[in-house]
Each structure stands twice: as structure tokens, then as C-alpha cells.
Design a protein that fits this description.
It contains seven helices and no strands. By secondary structure, it is mainly alpha-helical. It has a domain of 112 residues. Helix 1 runs antiparallel to helix 5, helix 5 packs antiparallel against helix 6 and helix 6 packs antiparallel against helix 7. The two termini are 17 Å apart.
């Protein structure tokens, strides 16, 4: 693979990651609407509930809690807006790595560190907040799946840098 092809592949990987990060943040804004759909499809009383009652019960419990929170204290949803904003800002930082992955390799490494930190954070804070263990593992998948494209992009960026010297 020549240098131009390698650079294009790195950029493609980073664009994929950036878009995924952006859309992940975007899903935090209409959370009430999304949970309503999720509860209908997967919650208690759904076809899934017979096979996965703990999972379905959790979805319905989260939906109910969010509805109650919106009724009593809708302003708390502003925290989800800030969660989305954080995703957007981090995605913007990755645009620097898309533009010049060699100079901005630190952004890729920063993303990899964040992916690794998701694991203990979800495990510890999930326990503090009484999140079921299986759901914590689902949250940890963001870090596991996120680090894969970043690792590939980093490895290729290091090769690209070595080849350009």
C-alpha cells in the first residue's frame, strides 16, 4: 500500500470513528423518545420479555424513571444535552487527526485512553449507581469496540510516519 492509500485508509477509519462518536452523542438528546420506543419493543410486555425478563425489566424501569424525572424535574434532562455536547466537542478534536494523523496522533491516543478508561469507570460507577452488571458490560462495549479502529489508525499512523522519514 502506498503512502497516499495508507493516509486515505487512516482518514476513513478516523472519519468513521468521528461520525460514530457524533451520533452517539446525538442519541442523548431525544432520550425520552428513544426510551419510549425501546420500552415498547424490548420492555416488559414485549416478545423479548419472555426470554430476557431481567433485561426487559431494566428497560421498563429506566423508561419509567425517565418519565417520572421529566414530569417532576424536566430540567435534569439538560445533563443529557451536556453529555451530547461533550461527544460533539471530542468528535471535533478528531477532525484534527483526520486532517493530519501524524501531527495529531495524540488525539488518536487520547481516544484510546478514553476507551480503556470506560471499562473501570462503567464497572465502578455502575456499581455506585446500582446499574445491573450485564448493563455495565454493555456500556463497556463502547470502549472495546471504540479502541479497535483507533488502534488500527494509530498503528498505521506510526508506519506512515516511519515511512515518511
Amino acid at each position: 500500500m502506498n503512502t497516499k492509500q495508507q493516509l486515505n485508509l487512516i482518514r476513513t477509519i478516523l472519519i468513521f470513528f468521528t461520525v460514530a462518536l457524533f451520533f452517539s452523542g446525538l442519541t442523548a438528546i431525544p432520550l425520552r423518545f428513544e426510551l419510549n420506543i425501546l420500552d415498547t419493543l424490548l420492555g416488559e410486555g414485549s416478545l423479548v420479555a419472555a426470554r430476557f425478563p431481567l433485561f426487559s425489566g431494566w428497560i421498563s424501569q429506566v423508561h419509567l424513571a425517565l418519565e417520572e424525572q421529566y414530569q417532576a424535574h424536566a430540567f435534569l434532562a439538560y445533563g443529557y444535552d451536556w453529555l451530547a455536547f461533550g461527544h460533539f466537542v471530542i468528535a471535533i478534536a478528531f477532525l484534527g487527526a483526520v486532517k493530519d494523523p501524524v501531527r495529531n496522533r495524540w488525539v488518536i491516543e487520547f481516544g484510546m485512553i478514553a476507551c480503556v478508561l470506560i471499562l473501570p469507570y462503567a464497572f465502578i460507577m455502575g456499581a455506585v449507581r446500582d446499574i445491573p452488571i450485564y448493563w455495565r458490560f454493555i456500556d463497556m462495549l463502547f470502549g472495546i469496540f471504540g479502541i479497535i479502529p483507533l488502534y488500527i489508525a494509530r498503528r498505521m499512523t506510526i508506519q506512515l510516519e516511519a515511512n515518511s522519514k
